[in-house]
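Support request, please re-run this one:
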Amino acid sequence: MPLSLLEAMNYGNCCLLSDIPECAEVVEDKVVTFKKSDVNDLKDKEAVLFITSTAGQGEFPGNAKDFYDSLSKIEDSSFLKGVNCSVFGLGDHGYVYFNKAAKDLSAKLTSLGASFLTPLTLGDDRDEEKYETQYYEWLPLLYEALHCKQVVHNDPPKSNYSATILKSNDGKIKPFKPLRSHLLPLKETKRLTPAGYDRDIRHFEIDLSGSKIKYNVGDTLGIYPQNPPEEVDRLLKELGLNGDDVVKITKSEAIRRTFLPSQTTIRSLFTEVLDIFGRPTRRFYSLLSRLVTDSKEKELLESTMTKEGTTLLKEFMTETVTYADILRRFPSAKPSLDLLLEMIPIMKPRYYSIASSPLLNPSSIQLCIVGVDWTTPKGVERHGQCTSYLRRLTAGNNTEIRAVVAPGTMRMPERSETPVIMAGLGTGIAPFKAITENRVALARQGNTVGNTILFYGCRYKKEFVYGDLWSQYQKEGVLTHVIPAFSREQSYKIYVQDRIRENARLVCDALVKDGGYFYYCGLAGRAPAQIRQGLIDALKKEEGMSEDKADAYLTQMEKDGRYNLECW
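Re-run finished. Output below.
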């Protein structure tokens, strides 16, 4: 069956099977292409797959917008009769417009008479395997609908990398520094919660004085973690590798660019570069199944790629097994260093909201981070990769971290007189410390600053961090209201949405009367929707709006950039 695929990623990259040259050249003659943005060309295809993300405030990615706009103008309900479609969405349920583009596209295709090979499937970046969780549920259904057998590869995988152990060090080894990252001194680290308390919240300050780095309020800092040295040495011993050996890495011409160092020690490779203690992807299980020599191991690994093996895979996910764990569980695989470079992803930065203002702290970046620790159902203690790395560091003593500044998602008001309401849960307080301190700096310069209102949600008073700072900024008249919500401090639960309802007049004056901005930062899940409902209830009570009108008002705030969410 001729098959077309329209893929629009949130990075603004290609529509993969349109006839855009850079896309068509990649897939060569292995697929059917269609004319870019030409909806009429779709009518000649028997099956079309759409994979789309959602951009901005529920919009289509830039490269798919023209296509959808053209499709939207068609009113003929039989326009796509005879065309078989499947739509897969890429989204994040922490945002109000979760997979809106995919939902809108599916609805439009339905209205034009298209048939569907599979139900609409919505990938979620917050699932255990991110979008792959739903992708591997969707794929078998697609194969079945297309009357195709899923391709199974049994031949040994090939690597696009070559690792050569050098007999001598030629002096070319340099500290690994990922693209666009900087080596920055760790100036200060201190614990904000009491010692022994179950939530280890810490303040970090990173020195920028020797760099040219600039940042803005609302930006994030991406930190590249390092694997625990003792765990690395243990794994190298198990793999039969000498950590002190120097390895030269070359790549095949099939790879246009690589983020691997050209020369390093094996210990540095496994400590700084490879995410060997990260969570394996299904691709890893698939590749490893082609390497095992033990028949039982092979059968078990191959089962993880089937619908029937979902239970086993979920067990792996629940136990948060790592690449290293799986290599130990399937010892007959014995991948070479070349193949490990192919199979193990490189270390990616972990992003944290910057908790300082460049106006107040131009030569440093501050962070507020909670340690991530948990116990699996089988009783195994696990720790967040980056937070455990940061906790191992000691400020000063030439301690440096690899980091990169990246823009955040929050939009700031153009005028300092504009009121802001900030709702932070736990360490979601970080960007609001930055916003408040930016306003403090502006006020100290003689600028008029609008009402600055902070709702702060946490479990107990012990987690109410930066209390002295909040008091100081209140005394300066900048932070006008600090309204905590301690959910477990008393016999009954109090949440941020409850405090919003209690202060409905204050909230409505800021958002409606004075055209203020609202910000939420914290966990995804139910919290954003519950806080939104608190705002709706406040609008109903004080502004006399109906439920629908209040919801529409907040939606318009989102479109205008006045309603901002940062969830994880």
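DSSP finds 18 helices and 21 strands in the chain. Residues 1-32 have pLDDT under 50 and may be disordered.
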